[in-house]
Known about the structure:
Strand 19 and strand 20 (266-269) form a beta hairpin. The chain has 3 domains: 3-105 and 284-503, Pectate Lyase C-like (3 Solenoid), CATH 2.160.20; 111-282, no CATH class; 648-807, Jelly Rolls (Sandwich), CATH 2.60.120.260. The protein is globular, with a radius of gyration of 32 Å. It contains 6 helices and 72 strands. By secondary structure, the chain is mainly beta. The strands form 10 sheets. A 14-stranded parallel β-sheet has the order 1-2-5-23-26-29-32-35-38-41-46-49-52-55, covered by helices on one side. A 14-stranded parallel β-sheet has the order 3-6-24-27-30-33-36-39-42-47-50-53-56-70. It has a 12-stranded parallel β-sheet with strand order 4-22-25-28-31-34-37-40-45-48-51-54. Residues 241-271 form the GH141-like insertion domain. It comes from Phragmitibacter flavus.
Amino acid sequence: MPFRLLLAFLLLPTLLPALELHVAPTGNDSAPGTREAPLATLTVARDKIRQHRKDTPLTKPITVWLHHGTYETSTTLTLEAQDSGTAEFPITYRAVENASPIFIGAPKVDFKTFTPHQGEILKADVSALGLKDITIRQLLHNGQRQTLARYPNRDAADPLYRGWAFIPELPDPLPENHQWKLETYLAPADIRQWAHPEDVEIDIYAQYGWWNWVMSVKSLDSKTRKLTLAKPCGYDLHPHNRYYFQNALEELDAPGEWFLDKRTQTLYYWPEKPLGHGDEIRIPKLTHFVKIASGTQHITLRGLHLTGSNGTAIVVENAQNITIAGNNIHHSGNFTGGGISLHGGKNNLATGNHLSHLGASGISLGGGDRITLSPANNIADNNHIHHIGIFNKNAPGISLYGVGNKVTHNLIHHTPRMAVQFSGNNLTIDYNHLHHTVQETQDGGAVYTGGRDWISSRGTSLRYNLIHDTIGVGQGKDGLHWPHFTWGIYMDDNAAGLDIIGNIVARSARASLHLHNGRDHLIENNLFVDGGERQIEFNGWNKDHRFFDNHYKTMLAGWDSIKDRPEWKSMRNIELDPRNALREDGTIMSGNIFRRNIIAWNEPTLRYLDLRHCTPKHNTVESNLVWNSGHTILTGVNKTGPDIGPDILNTQQLLTDTPPGKTPKGWGWNHKPLPELQITATDGIITVPAATGPDPKNAKSVIHLPTQPFKPGTSYRARLKVRSTEPTTTIGFHYGSYASPGGYWSTGEQKFTATPEWQDIEISGNLPAENTPAYKSWMKTFWLRLDIHAEKGQIQMKDITLKQAAPASNWEAWQSEGWDKNSHVADPRLVSKDSDDFRLNPDSPAPKLINFEPVPIEKIGLYPSEFRAN
């Protein structure tokens, strides 16, 4: 049965003839609950159903009809096992056709109690609202959130990227006992004076700026400029972290700001316009509108309009066959409050809901057993989710966990971080439209998962999603910058075993796809368009990578938990024990298949596929169609052709002119770990001592050969003989350039193992061309650099030459390394990728060249349904 028809079938029982109760804002809880004499509250309707079921067996469906109007509610509707329906006779709470029953969990501030305070600021006594023991961060004026008094003031014209203060450079030296998570220093202009600093919160994007932390302030010393928090933040407080202070009466200095004095229960508010009798000022107080407890079954909530809760609007815990359909949930939730939570249980469905302006996530769903791979079949389908994470910037549009759960046909946009964040197994993330995501954080993705336990998120389907405009924002010396460091699809930290098929990914800040040591993924028939810094990124670990060391025990525990389970045997490459993850070439990333994809972009300076610690022996890239609008395909694999011209070092003459035991002219130290070390030349042999020193910035011996003029885009090949006084010594060569002021650039290190026997080695490299991102105007000279990865001994070199070489084709060099066999460089003939029409023209070569199948764009995203919210 097609998926959409299956959902309709699941909802059909609510259309059967039913016993009925009616609820209306004008109702009376003492009434019988008929259409003519409705009840006033859902809790009384629930209790009447309970009583009915005690007296009469359930023989018909039961429907509670909610009539149009506003319901002031201060009580959570709690449904328990005793409130369950059955598969044949479900129980439904739903809106009357074409009605909008609006439930408000925010008590109203009496308009008459407002009196002048100071200037345009009003004040009101709200002690009667019972807010004393509740964390309050929301004030609604005519249904819209207002700004909790803050410094700096919110910039209404650009609230995401302006209106921030920044942690300055810290004192140097810092006190020895400086506590990075607990204290920092402010710029002089940002010192504030508060009567009650203990009430003040700092909202800060600490350390990396991955997301924000809202922390209580303990004190601010105006003389030392030292800020101390009441308890440690989750990340260190670093220079350039952006922040603002909130919740102080002294900061109430702009229209739209408010402050609640918990000591006196006085609300202070500066309205943007003078208040009139039609204005409503409300303070969200109710935690949940509906809570469906463990063991409850066959309940439907449909067509409700919920606004003004302080927590998650609808919570479903370990229930079964619960349907949340066509509800409109908005302007609700504090830092941990979202729209809908479906956790545990099975066969629960959230469909057709409209979720917006929520404090945290839109929908959260999980359930299922990961060891036995028993599915929960909890589903989020056909929901419209946007402008969420108002307080919690780590909140995704949909949070997906467990086994066998599904996220399909949703439209998710304008999120501070991920659209869909997931972890588990055999999950389904198909046919979603995701755009303008990761707007306020960095190092994220529109779709994101991790796999530190070796078994996540194997068996998951990521198919036919349209993903575009993944933004990202960084913070540094010059303030905020965007787009920055984020991806469309991000398989982080060893995530494994997904089918990534038929997706369209366009305009991601860094790249369309990132496998961070990803494993065993099948990536085929996707269209990747206009990555911001490169198109695809495979970034593996090696044996020395700290992530591999940090997560090794977790990997073992994950694999050991399922290695003997028959349910897991069909998972792709699951037989590989993480104890055997390290390959003979020193890499770990393996089992990925990247084929039959179209990769298209316009910018000639951007690389196609950026590889680190990833080899074609253990990963497959083949049969793709690659197109950079006719420009050269840059791959990062640089090879050189035949030598051109003479030896530009002229080392033999240089050694002849060098007295025995002295340093040849132009040879020097990059890192000199011990002061007594010396580069010497004797009898045509140059000797460099190996050592390590106490300075971590100069821990090993690093030298450079004589400096040469920098010719952009030129290729070089060095030849020399090398030996070591130790049995084995690892050495590495780079081509590099340095200027101060300016910066440092180098090629990737080419490593060799030196032994006591002379061996011939070659080091090829290419200097950046002027039209590439790596090239900088300060590059005037370059040199060949030698790193000795050893604590003792000596490296000896002779017969050294450096010659210009003919450049080789970047694409041919790439293919000669074993990548992109049977791939083609050709225009895919998209209808208009600049206008987001990603269909193939009839004359596209992609179907013929790589057997590319058109993506069913018309099926992606929302679809018409009677269960959709208005």
